[in-house]
Design brief:
The protein has 201 residues and is α/β, with parallel strands linked by helices. It has a six-stranded mixed β-sheet with strand order 2-1-3-4-5-6. Strand 4 and strand 5 form a beta hairpin. Helix 1 packs across helix 5 and helix 4 crosses helix 5. It is globular, with a radius of gyration of 17 Å.
C-alpha cells in the first residue's frame, strides 16, 4: 500500500488510525503534511456513511491520491441515538470536547446506570482516484458514566466504558483501546476488504 491522504485534520484521530494502519503496511499522510488546502468540508449527511464518503471523495478530488476518511460518533440509547452524526458539534458549532461532555451529562442527569447504554460508531471510507471506494463500519457498545474519568483519548472517551471493561476509553492504553474500539474494528474490517479486493484483482 502506498501513502494515503487523511481527510481528517484531527491529529488525535489520525494518530489512532495510524496506530492501527501501520500494522497493515499503510502510511497515512495528514492533509497539512500533504500541502492540501485547509478548506473545511461541510458534513451535511444524515448518516456516518454519507459523511465519511463525502469527506474522502472531496479530498481525493483535490489531491488526486487515495484518501481515507472517518466519520464517527456516539449514539446514546436514552437520547434515541443522539448525538450521532452531530457528536463533534453537539454543544454548538464552535464547541469543544468539554462542552460536548457537559451537555451530555446534563441530558443524562438522574438516568440510572441500566439505561445509560450507548455505542460508538465509526465508518471509514477509502477511495481511489478511479472512484472505487471501500467502506467499513465498526461499533463498540458500552455505558456512560456520571462523571469523566481518565486523561487519554478525546471526545466522549472519558465518559464511555466499553462492554466487558471497568475502565473508560480514556483510561485504557492506546493498544488496549485499539483492540476493542469502534475505529479499530472499522479498520480491521477495511483490512479484510483490501485483502478481498486484492485477491479478486
Amino acid at each position: 500500500m502506498t501513502d494515503i491522504i487523511a481527510a481528517s485534520r484531527n491529529p488525535k484521530k489520525i494518530r489512532e488510525m495510524e496506530d492501527i494502519t501501520k500494522e497493515f503496511g499503510m502510511t497515512i499522510i495528514s492533509r497539512d503534511d500533504a500541502g492540501l488546502p485547509t478548506t473545511e468540508i461541510e458534513e451535511d449527511g444524515v448518516t456516518f456513511e454519507e459523511n465519511s464518503y463525502k469527506k474522502a471523495f472531496e479530498i481525493m478530488k483535490i489531491s488526486g491520491r487515495p484518501t481515507i476518511a472517518d466519520d464517527s460518533g456516539l449514539e446514546v440509547d436514552w437520547l434515541n441515538g443522539a448525538p450521532g452524526v452531530y457528536s463533534a458539534r453537539f454543544a454548538g458549532e464552535e464547541c469543544d470536547d468539554k462542552a460536548n461532555n457537559q451537555k451530555l451529562l446534563e441530558l443524562l442527569k438522574g438516568v440510572p446506570k441500566e439505561k445509560r447504554g450507548a455505542r460508538f460508531v465509526s465508518v471509514i471510507t477509502l477511495i481511489y482516484p478511479d472512484g472505487k471506494a471501500l467502506v467499513a463500519r465498526g461499533e463498540t457498545a458500552g455505558t456512560l458514566l456520571e462523571e469523566e474519568r481518565g486523561e487519554g483519548g478525546f471526545g466522549y472517551d472519558p465518559l464511555f466504558v466499553p462492554e466487558g471493561k471497568n475502565l473508560t476509553y480514556s483510561e485504557l492504553t492506546a493498544d488496549e483501546k485499539n483492540q476493542i474500539s469502534h475505529r479499530g474494528r472499522a479498520l480491521r474490517k477495511l483490512k479484510e476488504l483490501l485483502y478481498q479486493d486484492t485477491t479478486r484483482g
